[in-house]
Write a sequence for this structure.
């Protein structure tokens, strides 16, 4: 259902979409029942000549069932929602599948920057690739990310991945994603982070292994490394804003 | 509020508890949440930060203990004032109220000396987590002591003339509550090192 | 509680009623002072369990004694007791909900490195962050 | 109620407040009054004025969203920093300075003494102080627009470190003024709330048992209790944040041993019960109105009360659903998912009871009744969409999108605005002694309801499409620049303008009817509760003779009676005794 509004491009996007669909069906049903009952009663018991109101206390057994039965059905529906909601949550946030790649994500006012291992495949070595505003990843690969913030709260959100995680200064928060679709997608900041919050955009570029290898080669060659690390348009704009800080 | 300006609502007592005492209980309940929130935050940090113990070792246990003693004693006076008020002995109740207020004053004086000493040693509000909580919690408590003793002195004027005697119990309740807060602050800030 | 009209629930002089029985307050006070002395001396022994009890166990006892004997919670209408207990219960809920994030510096997939650094650097200072 | 009779009736007249009701100066009558009705009016008009300001702010930022980068007529260019201030102050005003003063304070002050049959609040002067503190807090908040750096822009949740440090938020003065204003507002409502609670507990008319209190009084009192219990930790938090801002402490600064998540917990421990603080009075108003205009007893008075208490208690154990992805331990989210979904049970049950109350009634579609029924119909949308956000797995996607914005506007708008209009149109005759014009009232109703849905239904879709909150311009987010999303944003903005236009009908109706409306009798709606037994508007001191209560508030269409209503204070005549 959600696919109509926003593409899904990660392994867990579908499970979140299904959960949302399930909830939509259940609450939609109850919503309709309640609204139909409301409007039906409004129409049926509108004031008419010769129809006196009835004296009903709401404590009569044969009438209370109209409230108590739906009441128990609502509890049942809650359980039907709670269980898959928790299962999805456990899958997305609580369990980390073994990492194939690891990236570090730094947030600051108002840009995203990324650190990922260079050709040697190990983080924190000299050939690490650092980028600003752009994250290049391979499709169909389990990525772990280590999210940090350098100043205030930010939130790393990739709508197509159905991924969202706040970055808290002083903490490293680890999560994962596995992209299923190549292309360029948005990274949003979804936590109010000050003046440039509306400018804190980034791009995540999901590539095939070949494309990714080509990119890595370009990015880690000394001459081009500097240009790869150059801020993209967004980041340039951010820098401008940072300068006008009073 | 003088007796003539009271609303009829104020004179009713459907619960069986006089209105003034009833509202005192609700004030205490809301204060429990304010101090509770602050102390819960402090305790959480304190348990997780062993280094705060080092900072806490600079506090003056003797001053804290003396202050506990002072507040306990003033609580005794407060309850004796209540007893006197119940016996319709306004002047005696006023005397005990003033003694209670004196206890509060002694408490604040000791606190003043203690803080002056600590600030001279360089431990100020912004000197780190422990000190921030130390001054904030104790400062909020000291404000309550100050408010209590001012109210008590104001009440004592009427009470001495045998007027508004039920107020003695209400301000007493508040005072005991402030005492109880200190009973917890003392080990939290001074003893746990 | 009847519905009869004669029940005019207006106090003219609330002060004339509901007196509590006044016990021997000086005795209570003396016990409190003794407890205070124990709570100060306890920590000098240096036994951790004893320190904790001396500090917090006695605080609870003292608070209970003040509430019971000075504030007369025991003879007050019962719901006041319930009100106070409810307040404490809600605070316990607050603590239980918050502590997993604040009281621990490491959890499932998160690591509060800033707090760990603060402990590190604070442990061999005098507790002052410069 | 076992206390002896002391001849209160004799005192009823002489016990009034200041002597000489005639020669009262304007200042003493309107600004320095201790009369609960006057204080209610002060709260009502202040809240309504602030609602207009909050609405104006909404107009400005909705215009920016529909036509980004263009000069907004009546405001100017919306810069990123100003945009943040606009949304922050809009949120703060609407919750703290509109919903609470109007629903809790204005209706609470006006209704509680009248409905429980006494002359005033138990502490009239504390009541006056409450309003004065509130007014000061509102002035401080609005003044923050004028200081250097502008008003605070760190969202109404005011998360540190952004809110704690001027280097980050660039509004060092504005953020402190915001915090002080909010803290003062809390103090004002603590004072007011204590009065509500104690007045209702101690000041009820003889014969009024717990189960005879009108639901709206119950709801306002329960809301006050929830507020009192939830706000304490946040007051502590506000002190800590203020010290962080001004005195250099580091309570929420991770670099100095603090923890920013602590504020979030303290805030939402308050913030979630606050939702119910606003919602409950509106539910109470609805209960009064639907029973009167359906001529029906409430379908299970006790059910409503039990579910309200259950909701109130549960509201204290669900707060972290606002923080699912905020960096809390993911295992805690499971606990809060369960509690959050459980809270839907008492609330749905209450709504079912309201709907069931219509069964067997004789429904008159007057303006207040339309508002009350639309409250139920619209609040249902807010309620069901909340399930998406309470279910942790789905919240990963919806968190901080416009879906959330639409959801909470579908709860707050019905509570604060629809509830307010329901209450105002219903009690207007009692407050001002005149009837409102029904035609104008209905035009206003339909205009408001249609425009309201036009504003917020599109936002569910933009939210589902990934529009995140608090963004002044989506130009940099390629997925959000799709033209169809922009159409929806424009639709929503047009809705805002229609909504504001239709408020003119209400304002005209309100002020015109003050002078020219049909004179209201004591009991124009043939209602049972005690406020309808006194003249409209009620005189100082309310009751010429303090009433005694004989029955519950919802005895409509009782068999064996000639009239289909039965006022709470009407004694049983011997004739009726035989008939019943």
């Amino acid at each position: 259902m959600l696919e109509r509004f926003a593409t899904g491009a990660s392994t867990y996007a579908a499970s979140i979409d299904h959960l949302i669909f399930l909830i939509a069906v259940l609450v939609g049903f109850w919503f309709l029942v309640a609204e139909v009952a409301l409007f039906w009663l409004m129409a049926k018991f509108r004031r008419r000549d010769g129809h006196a109101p009835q004296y009903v206390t709401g404590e009569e057994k044969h009438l209370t069932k109209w409230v108590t039965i739906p009441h128990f059905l609502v509890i049942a529906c809650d359980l039907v929602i709670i269980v898959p909601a928790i299962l999805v949550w456990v899958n997305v946030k609580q369990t980390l599948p073994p990492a194939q790649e690891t990236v570090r994500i730094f947030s600051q006012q108002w840009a995203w920057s990324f650190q990922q291992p260079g050709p040697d495949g190990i983080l924190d070595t000299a050939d690490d690739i650092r980028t600003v505003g752009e994250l290049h990843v391979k499709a169909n690969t389990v990525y772990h990310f280590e999210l940090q913030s350098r100043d205030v709260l930010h939130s790393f959100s990739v709508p197509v991945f159905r991924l969202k995680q706040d970055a808290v200064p002083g903490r490293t928060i680890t999560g994962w994603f596995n992209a299923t679709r190549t292309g360029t997608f948005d990274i949003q900041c979804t936590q109010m982070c000050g003046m440039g919050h509306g400018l804190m955009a980034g791009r995540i570029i999901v590539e095939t292994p070949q494309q990714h290898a080509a990119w890595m080669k370009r990015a880690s060659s000394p001459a081009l490394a500097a240009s790869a690390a150059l801020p993209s348009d967004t980041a340039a704009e951010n820098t401008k804003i940072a300068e006008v800080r009073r | 509020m003088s007796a003539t300006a009271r609303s009829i609502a104020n004179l009713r007592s459907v619960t069986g508890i006089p209105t003034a005492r009833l509202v005192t209980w609700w004030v205490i309940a809301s204060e429990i949440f304010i101090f509770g929130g602050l102390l819960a935050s402090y305790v959480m940090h304190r348990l997780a930060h062993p280094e705060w113990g080092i900072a806490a070792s600079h506090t003056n246990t003797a001053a804290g203990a003396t202050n506990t003693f002072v507040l306990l004693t003033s609580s005794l006076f407060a309850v004796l004032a209540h007893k006197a008020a119940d016996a319709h002995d306004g002047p005696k109740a006023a005397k005990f109220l003033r003694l209670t207020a004196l206890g509060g004053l002694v408490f604040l004086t000791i606190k003043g000396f203690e803080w002056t000493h600590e600030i001279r040693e360089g431990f100020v509000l912004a000197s780190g987590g422990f000190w921030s909580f130390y001054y904030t919690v104790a400062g909020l408590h000291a404000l309550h002591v100050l408010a209590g003793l001012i109210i008590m002195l104001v009440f004592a004027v009427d009470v001495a003339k045998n007027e508004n005697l039920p107020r003695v119990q209400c301000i007493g309740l508040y005072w005991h509550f402030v005492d109880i807060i200190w009973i917890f602050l003392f080990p939290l800030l001074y003893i746990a090192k | 509680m009847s519905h009869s009209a004669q029940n005019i629930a207006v106090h003219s002089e609330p002060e004339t009623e509901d007196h509590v029985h006044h016990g021997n307050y000086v005795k209570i006070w003396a016990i409190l002072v003794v407890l205070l002395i124990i709570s100060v001396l306890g920590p000098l022994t240096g036994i951790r369990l004893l320190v904790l009890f001396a500090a917090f166990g006695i605080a609870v006892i003292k608070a209970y004694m003040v509430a019971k004997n000075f504030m007369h919670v025991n003879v007050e209408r019962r719901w006041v007791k319930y009100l106070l207990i409810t307040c404490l219960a809600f605070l316990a809920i607050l603590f239980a909900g918050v502590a997993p994030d604040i009281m621990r510096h490491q959890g499932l997939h998160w690591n509060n490195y800033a707090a760990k650094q603060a402990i590190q650097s604070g442990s061999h200072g005098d507790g002052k962050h410069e | 109620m076992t206390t002896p009779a002391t001849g209160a009736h004799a005192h009823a007249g002489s016990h009034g407040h200041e002597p000489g009701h005639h020669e009262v100066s304007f200042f003493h009558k309107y600004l320095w009054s201790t009369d609960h009705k006057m204080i209610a009016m002060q709260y009502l008009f202040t809240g309504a004025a602030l609602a207009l300001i909050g609405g104006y702010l909404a107009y400005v930022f909705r215009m920016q969203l529909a036509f980004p980068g263009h000069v907004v007529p009546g405001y100017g260019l919306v810069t990123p920093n100003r945009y943040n201030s606009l949304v922050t102050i809009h949120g703060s005003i609407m919750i703290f300075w509109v919903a609470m003063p109007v629903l809790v304070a204005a209706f609470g002050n006006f209704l509680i003494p009248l409905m429980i049959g006494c002359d005033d609040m138990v502490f009239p002067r504390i009541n006056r102080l409450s309003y004065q503190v509130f007014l000061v807090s509102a002035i401080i908040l609005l003044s923050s627009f004028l200081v250097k750096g502008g008003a605070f822009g760190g969202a109404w949740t005011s998360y540190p470190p952004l809110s704690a440090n001027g280097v980050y938020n660039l509004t060092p003065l504005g953020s402190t003024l915001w915090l002080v204003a909010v803290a003062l507002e809390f103090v004002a409502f603590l004072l007011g709330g204590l009065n509500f609670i104690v007045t209702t507990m101690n000041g009820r008319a003889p014969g009024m048992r717990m189960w005879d209190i009108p639901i709206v009084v119950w709801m306002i009192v329960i809301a006050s209790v929830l507020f009192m219990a939830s706000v304490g930790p946040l007051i502590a938090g506000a002190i800590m944040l203020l010290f962080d801002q001004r005195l250099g402490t580091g309570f929420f600064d991770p670099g100095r041993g603090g923890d920013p998540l602590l504020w979030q917990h303290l805030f939402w421990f308050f913030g979630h019960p606050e939702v119910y603080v606003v919602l409950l009075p509106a539910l109470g108003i609805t209960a009064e109105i639907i029973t009167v205009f359906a001529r029906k007893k409430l379908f299970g008075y006790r059910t409503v009360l039990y579910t309200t208490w259950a909701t109130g208690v549960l509201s204290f154990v669900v707060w972290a659903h606002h923080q699912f992805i905020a960096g809390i331990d993911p295992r805690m989210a499971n606990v809060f998912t369960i509690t959050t979904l459980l809270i839907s049970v008492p609330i749905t049950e209450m709504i079912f009871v309201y709907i069931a109350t219509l069964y067997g009634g004789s429904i008159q579609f007057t303006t207040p009744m339309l508002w009350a029924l639309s409250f139920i119909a619209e609040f249902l949308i807010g309620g069901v969409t909340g399930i998406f956000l309470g279910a942790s797995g789905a919240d990963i996607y919806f968190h901080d999108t416009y879906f959330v914005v639409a959801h909470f506007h579908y709860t707050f708008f019905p509570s604060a605005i629809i509830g307010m209009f329901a209450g105002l149109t219903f009690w207007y005759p009692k407050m001002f002694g005149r009837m409102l014009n029904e035609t104008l009232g209905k035009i206003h109703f339909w205009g408001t309801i249609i425009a309201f849905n036009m504003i917020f239904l599109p936002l569910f879709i933009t939210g589902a499409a990934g529009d995140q909150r608090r963004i002044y311009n989506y130009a940099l987010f390629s997925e959000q620049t799709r033209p169809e999303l922009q159409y929806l944003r424009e639709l929503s903005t047009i809705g805002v303008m229609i909504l504001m236009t239709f408020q003119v009908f209400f304002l005209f109706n309100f002020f015109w009817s003050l002078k020219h409306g049909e004179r209201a009798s004591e009991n124009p709606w043939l209602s049972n509760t005690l406020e309808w037994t006194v003249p409209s508007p009620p005189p100082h001191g309310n009751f010429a003779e303090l009433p005694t209560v004989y029955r519950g508030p919802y005895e409509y269409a009782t068999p064996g009676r000639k009239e289909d209503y039965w006022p709470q204070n009407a004694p049983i005549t011997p004739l009726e005794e035989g008939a019943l």
Summary: The first strand of chain A starts at residue 101 and ends at 108. Confidence is low (pLDDT under 50) at residues 225-246 of chain A.
